[in-house]
Amino acid sequence: MAEFVHITTARAAGRIRRSGIAARSHGRDGGRGVYCMPVLPSYTLTCQWVRELRRWQQGVLVAVQLRLPDAEPVTVGRYGTTPRQVTAAQAVAVIRGLDDPRGYEVFVPRAVTPGEVRRVRDVPQGVGWRYLPQAHGRRPCGCCAQRGGYKGAGLRRWFPYDGPPRPKHELMANLRDAATADEIIDVLSELGRARRGGAWELAHLVEHPDPHVRDTLAGVLRVYRGREARQLRQRLRVDSVDDGPPDA
Fold first, then answer.
1. Are residue 178 and residue 71 in the same domain, yes or no?
2. Domain interval for residue 179
3. Of 122, 138, 157, which residue sits at a domain end?
4. Fewer CB atoms inside 10 Å of the end CB: C or N, the chain?
5. Is a pLDDT exceeding 50 seen at residue 178?
6. Domains in the chain, number
7. 151: nearest Cα among 182, 130, 170
8. pTM assigned to the model
9. pLDDT tens digit string along 122-167?
């Protein structure tokens, strides 16, 4: 059996123990699955994606340790490049054999079952790299400056780029047209990248039947201002206590 680590938000830990890890991430071929890293001798390299993912994820991150069959089909490669199709055991061997595995990732093209989840552990929030594996000492790029991040506004002024976030009215139109839970989650993720008002526009999603939509909504509402956002977050907390079975 091959062992991997998947980084996710702490608020999803209980659901993962009960239901496993949903196939929500996009692979290079357009399919859905789960990104992870092999368990390596170096803890820092195993959890190298934590610091970068914190730029885009709301709240505290945790490490989910999982075990997959050696023959499980996966892909492996450095982000931004075309990955290789290999087995889980081969992916571990490939990354362990690298002189510098920073920036590499393994993609499992399916959901991870609860039986494959071994444990969920806390992880230091500052471990790993940010922006790029070799970013230290390099000239910063405006496209990497997340809104709300440390000195992000200054970086965008000094090093502007031509890819501004989509306006809210366009995202809300996409949300109204979204037909699946995955499409809703994609739009919510974009809405959560900037401070906003008008949380009432998302109120209809509080009772959405898909728990992953509700979980994403809870994170997005953290960047919304006003009483409506606080009330919706409270409703989501109450619903999660009333409807969810106890954690394993």
1. no
2. 168-243
3. 122
4. C
5. yes
6. 2
7. 130
8. 0.60
9. 888 878 887 667 654 444 454 444 455 545 555 444 444 445 668 8
